[in-house]
Design brief:
Blueprint (H helix, E strand, L loop, with lengths): L2 E6 L5 H14 L4 E6 L3 H5 L8 H10 L1 E4 L13 H8 L4 E7 L13 E7 L9 E3 L5 E3 L5 H17 L4 E6 L7 H13 L6 E6 H10 L6 E4 L1 H14 L7 E5 L4 E5 L16 H13 L3 H16 L2 E2 L11 E2 L2 H10 L33 E11 L6 H7 L5 E8 L2 E4 L9 E8 L8 H13 L4 E10 L2 E2 L4
Parallel strand pairs: 1-2, 1-3, 3-12, 5-10, 8-9, 8-10, 13-14
Antiparallel strand pairs: 4-5, 4-11, 6-7, 11-12, 15-18, 15-19, 16-17, 16-18, 19-20
Helix pairs in contact: 1-9, 1-11, 5-6, 7-8, 9-10, 10-11
The structure holds nicotinamide-adenine-dinucleotide.
The site of nicotinamide-adenine-dinucleotide has 20 residues, from loops.
Length: 473
């Protein structure tokens, strides 16, 4: 029986590269049945703000597999990113982007590398929780969970194990974000202990990315948070010679989505010059995922042979090195003609029957017994019309006292009040150890601020977890 898959043509170069890829899948006799849905600009312009219609969701829910061309995210209010909506609604927590050097066939600045970036796909600043706090200040909420971090780190180690890889590198910025990135790093260390045959290393993300960009041959599997992974995977994709080469998989416990790394390239849309290789590689990943490894290998090896033959799209074409500059469809025809042939220089696709990764789990269980409210960080819009001492005086006889006032994280009271910010955060802490703090105490503070014409724009409660501070500053 053929495997049903949902296919979306997308925007810009999407329809051209999808046609090319489907023609290769057809000729390779991939045992799939295709259900085509509409997504992207035209749908955004109708009534669905996420760029996908209810029929589209129904198809994906039925097939559980989506092969997707890139879509254009319209600028402006009311439109949400379709990609973010798909990842969140389908629980696609892992984004996998293998990037390989095709040297000497496709030139790049390096000789050999074979890097797989595994990016957490559901958390971090991609939660889309953003607020304008004041005239000048905006905030974006970064959410990192211990369970989500463990799940993606375990996925990375399982991936390394199943693909016979030797090392997993974790990138975080936990020297600055000790709670969020610190949690991701701790989850990585916890998971790594169960994989003694695989080397585990960690870099601070800035030097780590610099190293990947300059010495990619020293990396194997890299696991990181959503935003860092987004940036890093484009850097690595570009390093291999063209952003048009790499495909990516988005994997969840129930659903999976496969797409090219690049976007809809509106600058070259409709000209039959786009490279379909990124989407073709995504389709190869899809075939492996649904258990059609033989067809995946047939297509991948024919694709490598086509590159070796010097048949290149405009983004890869080099005078004197390439043999023939072809358009999108002609490139697909060349791949079709090479079905059954093997590359001579580039490495063939190695797939094992057992490369599918079972549901990644998290060991996280509640790791504390007693959670105690001890205070609150209350942020005010600030026009400097009052002195900071006036604020602290307001709470002189209150059961929570202000111990410090911050402006953008810098302590400005007690001490210097020379600062540039139109928002300040007052840290209220209970007066003595034995005191029990309740939400009513916090409400009393908010009421007092309002009675005195101060504008509260944000509030973050402070808790102790078995006596350990659940806040940092
Ligand atoms: P892009 O990847 O579309 O284009 C960047 C550059 O790479 C352009 O010069 C383009 O011509 C070239 N390029 C991209 N794919 C190519 C291919 N297959 N062959 C040859 N050249 C190729 O990035 P962008 O211009 O920043 O984004 C355009 C639109 O795509 C935006 O609306 C963005 O939101 C969207 N986007 C969608 C996805 C997705 O659907 N997964 C991903 C990234 C960007």
């Amino acid at each position: 029986m053929s495997t049903p898959i949902t296919v979306a043509y997308g925007d810009g170069i999407g329809p051209e590269i999808m046609e090319a890829v489907l023609s290769v899948l057809r000729e390779a006799e991939a045992n799939i049945s295709v259900d085509i849905i509409e997504i992207g600009e035209r749908i955004y312009n109708k009534e669905w703000s996420h760029g996908i219609s209810p029929n589209g969701w129904e198809s994906i829910q039925r097939t559980k597999i989506l092969l997707k061309s890139p879509t254009t995210t319209p600028q402006g209010k009311g439109h949400k990113s379709l990609n973010v909506a798909l990842r969140k609604n389908l629980g696609l927590y892992a984004n996998i982007r293998p990037c390989i050097s095709y040297n000497p066939i496709i030139e790049n600045k390096f000789d050999k590398f074979d890097v797989v970036v595994i990016r957490e796909n559901e958390e971090d600043v991609y939660t889309g929780i953003e607020h304008r706090l004041t005239g000048d200040s905006y905030q974006c909420t970064k959410i990192i969970t211990r369970s989500g971090s463990e799940k993606i780190c375990r996925y990375a180690f399982e991936y390394a194990k199943k693909h016979n890889r030797k090392k997993v590198t974790c990138l975080t910025k936990d020297n600055i974000m000790k709670m969020t990135d610190g949690t991701f790093h701790a989850a990585f260390d916890h998971v790594a202990k169960n994989y003694s045959g695989i080397k585990a290393e960690h870099y601070i993300v800035d030097i780590g990315m610099a190293k990947v960009a300059t010495e990619p041959e020293n990396f194997d599997v890299i696991v990181t948070e959503n935003l860092y992974g987004d940036i890093l995977s484009d850097i690595v994709a570009q390093t291999s010679g063209s952003v048009g080469l790499a495909g990516s998989s988005n994997i969840g416990n129930e659903y999976a989505m496969f797409e090219a790394v690049h976007g809809s390239a509106p600058d070259i849309a409709g000209r039959n010059i786009a490279n379909p290789s990124g989407l073709l590689n995504a389709a190869v990943h899809m075939l492996i995922y649904i258990g059609h490894a033989k067809t995946a290998k047939l297509i991948y090896d024919a694709w490598l042979k086509t590159l070796e033959d010097g048949v290149h799209t405009a983004d890869l074409y080099k005078e004197g090195k390439s043999k023939q500059k072809v358009g999108t469809q002609k490139f697909a025809e060349a791949v079709i003609n090479n079905l059954g042939k093997k590359p001579k220089v580039l490495s063939e696709l190695l797939t094992s029957k057992d490369s599918k990764i079972s549901q990644a789990r998290s060991d996280y269980k509640q790791d504390y017994k007693v959670k105690k409210l001890v205070g609150s960080d209350i942020t005010l819009a600030w026009d400097k019309s009052a002195a900071l001492d006036q604020i602290t005086q307001l709470f002189a006889s209150h059961n929570l006292k202000i111990i410090v006032i911050y402006a953008k994280g810098l302590a400005i009271w007690p001490g210097s009040s020379n600062f540039l910010s139109d928002q300040i955060t007052c840290r209220f802490i209970k007066n003595d150890e034995k005191q029990v703090v309740t939400n009513s105490d916090i409400i009393n503070i908010l009421t007092k601020f309002e009675e005195n014409n101060f504008n509260v724009v944000k509030m973050d409660n402070l808790y102790l977890y078995d006596g350990k501070e659940g806040f940092f500053s």
